[in-house]
Specification:
Length: 410
């Protein structure tokens, strides 16, 4: 296979597991229709909390993606999500894994909480059992790095396997790192993205911070009240453009560049001058060699919290200047909630689909404009548009910031 240093890395397969649907077609159609995947949480008891809603995946539809010899009880929920999304991406790309060198296929995954629900079960047993006996099986399923390892094992991938834990920016980090591995000739193909199952730890933490909305996520709306904790996975099949063309593959988009930074300001709050966000976006534009007037769409981090939406709007205006007011900006978290480490991976997939399909998903639940958030947020209805360049933002706790730039492949 070609390994030219100027050979672009492209997206040829997409796998999505989300509260609005599983698989590219179901999820994409739901997003364009502005459907909400938010409801009352069923996977654990929320009676003790001030809020009770979140986004949950239809897990029962995913077991078929595991090998018959490996029941879903032998992997954690996060691994199940990632395996399903990875297999969807491979199938979407039209790749027969028997025809490739397994040692040239790598797996890069990002997460916030990993298999945290397994740790929660261990805690329950520890608290409830006077003898302090803990199921050993739970312990061996917990380490977060097992998620990409399980994906690799399920697909027979023998290349590099990485888990990146930069919280809610991790999906972009993983995709960017996978692109680097391909460009450096370490591998020919990569499955890259992010995953997080719904975690009681995350739900408790955000509730204790009073950062969870009681019912709806309203990014950029004046009356926004916070995030909605959710779950899911997004995986992209990445390969060189020359290899994709050689097998007549459908190319969704090109990964043109990415930027990462850390504002080193606060554990949970963004820098008031948006230093990390600005640096990440500028880094992505610089690596891609793209000017500010060439960006046609921004997939916002758009969490629905007072600070994030205001700071992100400010950062976009600082980077794009007057052109910021001409760029559609939307947040799919208004529909699927905050999927933590999966968020930016799902949003990267949405950017690729926006370029390929010519539609921008909306920001739903947008009712009252905020004078401090004064951009075009594609309110409540999807929009038909030709997108040549899309930017996906992801800003996480700990100051971790990332921006991924996707473009139409010529």
């Amino acid at each position: 296979m070609s390994k030219g240093p100027r050979d672009a890395v492209v997206v040829t397969g997409i796998g999505l597991v989300s509260p609005v649907g599983n698989g590219v077609q179901e999820c994409w159609q739901a997003l364009l229709e502005g459907k909400s995947g938010i409801g009352e949480i069923r996977s654990f008891d929320t009676a003790a909390f001030r809020t009770h809603c979140g986004g949950e995946v239809k897990v029962h539809t995913l077991a078929r993606y595991l090998q018959a010899t490996r029941p879903s009880s032998t992997v954690g929920k996060g691994s199940l999500f990632a395996i399903a999304a990875a297999k969807m991406a491979v199938e979407d790309a039209g790749i027969d894994l028997n025809d490739i060198d397994p040692f040239r296929l790598g797996v890069c995954c990002g997460t916030t909480m990993g298999e945290c629900q397994l740790l929660e079960k261990i805690d329950e047993q520890f608290v409830g059992d006077r003898d302090c006996s803990i199921d050993a099986d739970l312990l061996r399923f917990y380490p977060p790095q097992l998620i990409p390892c399980n994906v690799a094992r399920e697909l027979g991938a023998g290349g590099p396997v990485h888990m990146i834990t930069t919280a809610c920016a991790a999906g972009n980090y993983a995709i960017g790192y996978a692109v680097d591995l391909i460009k450096e000739g370490v591998i020919d193909l990569a499955l890259a993205g992010g995953v997080d199952p719904l975690s009681r730890v995350a739900f408790t933490g955000f509730n204790s911070m009073l950062a969870v909305s009681p019912e709806a996520c309203q990014p950029f709306d004046l009356k926004r009240r916070g995030i909605l904790v959710s779950e899911g996975s997004g995986m992209l099949l990445l390969e060189r453009a020359s290899d994709a063309r050689a097998r007549s593959a459908h190319i969704y988009a090109e990964i043109a560049g990415y930027g990462i930074s850390n504002d080193a300001y606060h554990m949970t709050s963004p820098h008031p001058d948006a230093r990390g966000a600005i640096s990440a976006m500028q880094g992505a534009l610089r690596e891609a060699g793209v000017g500010i007037h060439e960006v046609d769409y921004i997939s916002a981090h758009g969490t629905g919290t007072a600070a994030n939406d205001r700071i992100e709007t400010y950062a976009i205006k600082q980077v794009f200047q007057k052109h910021a007011f001409n760029i559609p900006v939307s947040s799919i978290k208004s529909m699927i909630g905050h999927t933590m480490g999966a968020a930016s991976a799902i949003e990267a997939a949405v950017c690729a689909l926006a370029i390929d399909q010519g539609f921008i998903p909306p920001t739903i639940n947008y009712v009252t404009p905020d004078p401090q958030c004064d951009l075009d947020y594609v309110p409540n209805h999807s929009r038909k548009a030709r997108i040549n360049v899309a930017l996906s933002n992801a800003f996480a706790f700990g100051g971790n910031c990332s921006a991924l730039l996707l473009s139409r492949h010529a």
